[in-house]
Structure formats: structure tokens, C-alpha cells
Known about the structure:
Layout: H1 3-22, H2 29-41, E1 45-48, H3 55-66, E2 69-74, E3 86-90, E4 96-100, E5 110-116, H4 123-135, E6 137-140, E7 143-146, E8 151-155, H5 169-173, E9 177-180, H6 187-195, H7 202-206, H8 219-229, H9 234-248, E10 266-268, H10 272-288, H11 296-307, E11 312-313, H12 315-318, H13 321-335
Parallel strand pairs: 1-8, 1-9, 2-5, 5-8
Antiparallel strand pairs: 3-4, 6-7, 10-11
Helix pairs in contact: 1-2, 2-10, 8-10, 10-11, 11-13
Amino acid sequence: MNQDELLTHAARVAADIETQVARVVVGQSSAIRLLLIAILARGHVLLEGDVGIGKTTVLRAFARAIGGGFARIEGSIDMMPGDLLYHTFITEEGSPRVSAGPLIEHGENLAVFFFNEINRARPQVQALLLRAMAERSVTAFNQVRRIPHLLVFADRNRVEKGETFELAAAARDRFMMEIAIEAPASDEDRAALIFDPAYHDVEKLLARCQADLIDYRDLEPIAALIQSHVGASPSLKKYALDLMRATQEPHRYGIKVSGVNVAELVEAGASPRGMSLLLRAARVHAFLAGRVNLVPEDLQAVFRASMVHRVFFSPVYEFDRQSIAPLFMEEVLRCIAAP
């Protein structure tokens, strides 16, 4: 295929993937679209949401649609870095054995890795994961093991705070997006999840999603082509820079949040890397809409998910982050004039 044919094929397949995943997960259209954008932008994702709302199911559906290996691990206080790489067990004969852990068991075919409750794992474990995210390789069994197609999805336990280790600023900044997956809002969708037996058997439910709609190994070249295909005007670039500055010095841009001294709110705003990742996501949003140039709506559509986890509040406000952050993000978008 030439470049135009590949882009046309990618747009058609992306629509198919979104449709297929929506057959498995109800009431999550916004989250599904953002997850699709992250996958096509090749960005790692933090997931926010309570237990039992389908985070694992939606990731398994995406993994089924794009092909490749899927692995999952549960964070715990006693986890060690080696638990990502090695699995020790006793055979039926009583002999000790060591096999590949979840991060390398699929070899170079690993496409989706889900770290459940990452904030229960110690910083040493998080550090190893960050290396894998940044370099798409790890050292195990005295060899460098490449995982070139890896995308990491991680969620944090936001209810039980005992024995947890919050991700450091540098760690959070490595994730392209933080995507909220909430319980469906409509009573119809909630009733379906509770009473419809079709949603009670995950394996049968996932079978609804067509498998291997795209070769996961093609996602990297497709992502690169999308980024070069979608342009940005000088006025759009200025708008992006204004958004960045507003997250850093909100009081200078007239941003107000009820009950908050905005001049003392932000310790660190969006980083250049964060804005770069936001632009990557915005270009995919534009591509999915059939545009070849960015418009302000593309940045606005991914702004909250791309920024909410990488704007750091002062300690006096950090405790109320969950309520303040969404209001702050909306105020930034409201106060910065779009071209």
C-alpha cells in the first residue's frame, strides 16, 4: 500500500475497532474513543475508576481487536521488581523452576500490559515498569528482552489508601493520558450490566469482539504516518503554547476556581513532553474526524485526559485533587481564547 491507501485502511479499521469494542463494553463511548486515540498515538495510559466497572474487560477487548499478547499483573505491597520478569514455582516432581514473568512471557508479541493497582507496588517496581515503557526493553535471564509493541495501561486504587505508593511526578508524566472509566450513567446501561446474563461471562462477552482487525505490528508505522499527515497552523501552535502557559501560571490568565487561591494552586504545570504527547493525541483525533489539519476542538477533546495527571498542585490542595483538577482543566479551556 502507498501512504494514502494505508491511511484510508487505518481509518476504516479504527472505526471497526471502536464498533467492536463497544459491543463488549456499554456506556463507555468517551473512554473507548480516548483509548483508541492512545493506541493509535502509541501512548501509555493511566486508568481511573472504581473496582468492578470493566477496566480489564475493555483492555482485553482492545487487545483482541488489535492482536498480539495481553498480560496483566496485580500490584501488592510485597511485590518485587523481579515479579514482572520471573515466575518461580515447584513442579509436580517437587523441583524448583523459573519461567518468564508477565512482562516477557509473550516475547516481542506483547501488545497490551495491564498493571492493576500500580500504586500498591513499591517505587522499585514502578521504576522497572517505567524503563520498560520508555525503552520498550528489559533485562532478564542475562539478556536484553525487546518488547517493541508494548503499551502499558495502569490503574490506581483510589479507595483504599493504606500501604500504597503514589506515582512520582516523573512517572505520571510518562503516561500520555489519564482516562476515567466510570459506571454507566444511564439506568438502561446499568440494568443491562446487572441483569443481562450476557455480561456475566467475560469470555463469551469478549467473543462478540472480532479478533485481529489489524496487525498490531502495523500500529507503529501507522502512528508515524498519522503524525506526519496532520498539520498545525501557526495560530494553532500559539494556542497550544498558551494552554501550556496557563497550566503553569493560571493566575496570569484570569483562571478562577471556587474556594481556591489560584496563585498558590500549581506547583508544576504541563511539561514540554506533556504538550508533545497532547499534540500526538490531538493529531489522532483530527485523523479520526477526517481532517488533515488540527483545529482547536482536537486539542480540547484530549486536553483533560492529557493534562489532568501531569499538573501538580501544592500540598494544601493536592488532597482535594479529585474535585479541583476537573474544574481547573475546564477553566483553562474556557479562559484561553481559541483561534
